[in-house]
Structure formats: C-alpha cells, structure tokens
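Class, carefully examine what follows:
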Amino acid sequence: MRNNLVFQILVFFTAGVTSIFSQITLSGEVIDSNGVPLSGAHIGLEPSSKFGISDMEGQFQIEGVPAGDYILTVSYVGVKTYSESVTVATEALSFSISLEDDPLNLQNVVVTGSFDPREQLTSSTSITTLNSERIQKSFPRGAADLLQAIPGTFTDPSAGEVFTKVYARGISASAEDDMGWYYVSLQEDGLPVSLVQHSYYSPDIFHRVDITTEKVEAIRGGSAAITALNGPGGIYNFISKGPRDSFGGEIQLQGGVQGEGNPMFRVDGTVGGTFGNNWFYNLGGHYRNDDGARNTDFTFSKGGQLKFNLMKRHDKGYVKFYGKILDDFTNRYTGVAATDWSDPKAAFGQDFNSTALMMPAFSANVPDGRRLAQGATNNFDPSQGVHAQDRAFGIDVLQELGANWLLRFNLKHSDKSANWQTAISNAFVSLNDPLAYFISGAQFPIGQVVFREAGSGTEVARLDNSGILAGESFQYLNDGSLPNDAIMGTASWLKQNRSGEWMNQITLRKTSANHDLTFGYSSGFSDTSLYTQGSFGYITYEPNPRMLQVTLENPDQPVIALSDANGLSNYGGLFFDNSRAEVSQIAFFANDRWKIQDELHLDVGLRYETIGHQGSKDQAAPFTGDGGFDGDPTTAYDNGILAPTGEVDEFDFNYNYLSYSAALNYKFAEESAVFVRFSSGNKAPELNYYFNNFSNVPINQKGEVQRITQAELGLKYGSAVFSATATAFWSRLKNIGVADFAFDTENGNVFYTPVQLNNSRTIGLEWETAYSPISNLSFTFNGVLQNPIATTWTVYDAAGSVDTADDSTVDYSDNTLPFNPKLMFNLGIEYEKDKLNGFVRWQFMGEREGNVANAFQLPAYGIFNAGIGYEITRHISADLLVTNLFNSEGLANFFGANTFGASANGVTSEFIQTNPDASFVVVPVLPRGSLLRLSYTF
C-alpha cells in the first residue's frame, strides 16, 4: 500500500488520506519574552509530520496525534527555537511556551543551502535570514534593494526593480547589467524563478517582493555549489507565507512620493485559513502604480501579482498546490552624464537625483525584419518598458515512507514572456560628428538638415553640415539651435522573449542515529525564444529629452526624410537577433550529515550536473530593395532593415561536471559553533554566449565552464543579548568569458568583441552582529572586508571596427577586480516599546574600481534609511518609511566615455590624461522616497 501511495504521488500528484490512529490533541500558547502573543509561530512534532500554527492570540492546536514519544519544537523568526520532549498517551496536553529573543535568527530552522531543515547555528553555511518584519520595514523597490541588508552581498538596484545586479565574494565578472544574477539562484519556495538567462532576460524580471513573502534565506557561496541548479555563487530564497489554522490576514494601503514629488500608490493583501478536514489555503498579492524615482513623462511601473497555495495535510505528510500570476509593467533607468574624473559631477544640466535621460512616450510601428514580405510591423512605445508576464503553477508533496524514510517532491511549470520596449544607450553625439547623420541609413545626408519636434512639428533648428567630412564645424542657418549642440546617441530596444519551463526536485531522506542521508534528482527544461530589433532614435540631448523629426532639405532637391514622424531612423538596422533554444538541466546529488560526536558533524555532498543547449540563430543582412522597404527613395529611414538571409547557425552542446562540498561543524557551547567548509562548484554558460558572441558566423565551439572554488571558516554565537557571526573566505573564479559591446563607426553596426578567458580571486571577512542592551533597543552591524583581484585579465580592443587587422589585447592582470568594494557594511539601530517602533539604518558602500583598467574609481557613499511605526489599535497600524533620507548622490555604476557604443573597459589612464575634460556615463543611486503605510490585520 505504501509503494502504491508513492506511485500515486509521483504520477497523479494526489495523496490518500491515511487513517487517524488517535484523537489526542496538543494545544497551548506561544509568547515572546515580553509576554506578547506570537502569531504565525510554527509548532512541529518530530518524527511525525504533524504541525500547528499559532493564531493572533498566540494559541495553537494539533489534533489527531498518535500515542508515542516526540520532540515538540516551536520556531519563529527572530526568537530562539524551543524544543521539549513530550510523551503522548491517552490525555490531551496543554503548553505555555515563552520564546527568548534571537536577534540573528541563529536558532531558527533554515531550509536553504542544505538538504535537511536544521538550526542556523548548527548549519555549516554562511546564511542570513530576513524575517517578514524586516521585509515590511523596507521601502518597496524590489528584490535587489532588499538584499542590500544581507552581509557580504553586493547589489546594484540603481536601475529600479529589474536590470539589477546581485553577487557575493567577488564571484561577479559575468554578472553584467543586462544579466546581473549570473552566478546566483533567485528562488521562490526552493525552486528557481527562471531556468535561463540571457541579455535583458534575468530572473528579477519575474519576481516581486510583497506581503506574501514570509522570509528570505540567503546563502553566500559554499553549499550553493551542490544545492542549486547552475547557481554556485549563492542562493536567495524567498519563502511564501504558509498555512493558517484559522481565518485571518492583512491588508496594506501604501502611498508616497519619490524624487521630485513623483507619486506612488500600492495595495497589498493576504488572507488564509482552513475549510475543514485538514485543508488550508493562502491567497495574496499586490497592485501598484508608480511614477518612479526619476522624472519621466510616463508611469514608470504599474501592475502586480497574485499568489496562492492550497494544502491538504494528513498523518504522513501533505500535498500542496501553489501558483503565481504576474502581469506587470516596469522600466529601468539608464546612465547620467558626468565630468571631472576625480570628483564626478552631473553635466549638461542633468541631475544625479532627478534625471532619467530616457526616450519620451510615443507610439510607432516599425517593420518586423522577420516578416517583411507579409508587411508585418512591431509596435514600439518606450512608456511600456518591460511587460513581464508569468503564469506558474506547481505541486509540493511531502510523504513519510516509514522506517525514517521521507520523500519530498516539488514540481513547477511556468509560461513566461518579457516584452521590452525601451531605449538602449543615451550618449552624447555632437552635431559635428558625421555619425549624427549617417546613422540614419541615408546614403549621403550632407547639406541642410532640419530638426523639428516630433509631436508638434515645430522647427527647432536648421543647420548646414556640408563641411563636417572635411573636419569643419556645422553652421546653424537660423536662430534655432539644439540643446548642447548635440543629439542623443540612442536606439529603440525592442525585445520579445518567451519561455515555457518545467522544473522539479525529488529528495529521498533517511535518518539514523548518526547519519542523515539525502539522495535526490533535480531537473529543468526550458523552451525559449527571443527576437531583438533596434532602430536609431533622434532625440534632443537634455534632461527632459524630446523626439525629433529630421529631414534633409537641400535646395532644388527632393526632401529626404532621415527619420519618421516619431523620430525613429534606420529602422531595424542596428540590432537583429532572432534565436531560439531548448535548455535541459539535470542533476543527481547525494549528501550525508554524519554525527561523529554529539556536537561534531561532518557534512559531505556531491552533485553531478549535465546541461544541454540546443538551438539556432538566424543570420541577417540589410534589406536591399530599391527605395527601401516602402519603395520610396525620399524616406531614407527604412533603407537598412536587417532581415533573415535564410542561413541559420545551429548549436548543440552539452556541459557535464561534478561539484562537491565538505564541511565540519562543531558546537562547542549551547550558544556557539564553528564551521569550516571547502567547495568546488561550476557555472555553465548561459544562452547569451550564443546569442551575443556569434554575429553571422557559425557557432562552432561551446563556451567554457567557469570553475568556482571556495574555502571558508565561520564562527557563530547567539544569545538573547548579543549575537554574532564571522566568516573568513577565500574564493577563486576561473575561465571567465568576457566580451565587450562595441560599435563600428564605418558600417554603423553594433557587435561583440571576441571572448577573453580570465581569472579572479577574492579574500575577505563577512560579519553580522546584533546587540540588545535592553529588551526594547537593539543595534545591528554587518558587512564585508575583502580584497578582490583580477589575477589573470585581458581585454580585447577592437579599435572601433569589425576589421581585425588593427585589433589588440591589453593585459590588466593583478589589478583590482572592478565593481567590488573593499569595504561595505550596514549599521542600524531599532527601538520598540508598547505601540511605538522605529529604526535608522546606514548603508555604507566603499570605493570601487569602475573597470579592470583601474583608471576610474566610483567614490564611496552612504545612504540613510529610517522608519517609524505606531499601533493605533489592535488591528490597525501605521508606518512611515523613508529611503535615502538625505538624498545622497552615490554612484552605483560606470558605463565608460560618453560616446555611442563605448564601454567601461575603453577608459584607461592614458585616455583620461588625454581627455581630462571629457564627459562620461555613470548610474547614480536612486533618490529619496517616502511612504506612508496603513495596515489592517484580521
């Protein structure tokens, strides 16, 4: 019968209801050290699968417990886990349990980065937990912004909720802006949010933090090598709210302003309960409308998500059905111009706090290069940003098999789409630069050029560029002029990405007196496609850009339209990528936690992973019809549309590797433990390797697997007054494939330079402390001190053209690894008494190198966040949250010289000496935001 039940779980995803062996009930209350009832505490019975959840009064009840001996455990994030041996006989049992404070959650049970739930204190990993209270006291700007609270984790949320970067311990080189989660696994409830990554397609696009998140568990390196699918650099697991034993929930109304008074509105809600016979449900989500932190002429973010789970508990486990529906529009901020290499200041009238420098809203229809014969078009409207949609549904089964065997099965299917309609680049292009005219696609755009506002048709400037090919300056022909005598070097960025994904994990666990063995299988299958099209956009170069309609109006000659009525030019001539791929990821793993002595454990794990990439990519060439796509010789903007040639480059490669990790943990006192761990992990290439690096050439070789080796020594101490963790680490990353984005000034095409294989090494110390001198006051301090080095590093210099005759490589070995601060920390103080609470936190980001040449440094900066809350009634509370309280103008990123197609690596010491007054592009941190939240709990 038991085997039959397992078969039903795996094949039909159902579970039978086992017989009730007893009707004994365990009940009681859970309070904290101040006598306040704890709602949502988890009460479990080992070795059974029965559990209870405390209600708003701190009361809990577990029914139908069979007679026997058990370990009763009570866990709640922020307080110490309580354990007690109990014997269930013939009478009901009642408990009154008071839990002691645990500021760093060291005695809470964690599930991330290990194959068996265990106390954080005794886990031989560098793990940090953020509870729901900490999450709710953060300004809602996305996952990366929230993860700044994790020690040792570098995050760059300066672009907004998406297009973010997250990494730790110097494992960062391929975590670029358009794929910033390259080495780490962003997870929801133990499974990845997305299986694949490539340019402008990262997991943060499909993830939103809201009231449905119960806690976050974050692993830096270490055991991630054997517990994550192709994510050896770390795991950031967002765990959703679980079942409730009685009806209840919470509604939050939030309103605020960001930047220069830009409004935002948001509503979050969650509700859960039971409808009898051990069925439990939870439903929640959010909707928001946000004008953004910087100034744009459109709504920056709008939309939301709905999440649910439905659980059936039985004597031997549970069956849970869960899902998420995400339908959301958001955008991402690009760079801002600056001057003064030693002390950057905003240039050209721009402002680090308010300038967005993005395309304004308009609606255009651009011919679809894939389907020119059918006359198909793609609508482009930069106010749409990225339209992210995710439909994810899954089943999670836990089943006791007897004889201390436990089966866990988790399966999820999702359909994802990300439709980007935004701009790429916003560089300065002088009107003396021939690029300003020839990038239109016109054959010879020399003479009298007229710029008109696209919306109104009003003439802004008329000029004569006849002498620019001879090195002479252009001349205005009337009183009009363009701001800064320039246009913005930018392109419309249309990307249509879709994926259908299946992922699952099966674990079989066997416990004995001295061993905790886990065997498992995890897999993921993704069918993905992408289409990218780019057109040049004529836009003024000023803080609030305007689209420009541009014509060539030479006397006694036909008027030539260099742009369409919206200001778009060179239709589909800058970018074309039409690709598709099938990805399979399969892993087998085994782990043993061996109790050598009562306080000494050896953790050993192996993971064999095989990853397959099979797909194809269309070759493309400019449309060659007379008069361009529309057949009209006076419309020059449609003369160079890139379209498929019929040639297709295919790829079919497999990556196989073995990862391992071993650790010793010694608990030398009730509140103290030390661990040492050594890990060897691997990172297979992502799809961008094929999509970005092969332009109209066969994909004749597979990418390199990056090797990640880490050693760490950690100490953990936890008491009610003072808790601390410290982890010394050494990490090495090998076979880093690096290619730069470049622009060919001769033919006007964008290309990627040949891949260079490089290595890096980082040595550092992470720490996390919490001190509560009195019960109402606590201080927190966490951070990292590290030395990141690019041990072997070369950069390919394409010399501004596809022609390789003048190319070279530059060696920057032993320089400091860019974008990794040597010092980074968070310092906070929190106060809570009766109905009042408040906090102040200071985030310090140390100086970082802006590129591997170490020619430019991003200065250190500090940001203050603060909040105050008050419990108006037992059910109603109010909170005021402020981020970047003093409007600090920190710089988070560096994009290189302020020219179209430039990259950060193009700036060397020699370049700065030669161009001391040149402008460059930086990405500032987001400005101040204030939010008032009203919460109703029921």
User: Anything to note?
Assistant: The chain has a mean pLDDT of 91. Helices lie at 2-12, 132-136, 143-146, 224-227, 435-438, 688-693, 909-914. The two ends are 43 Å apart (CA to CA).
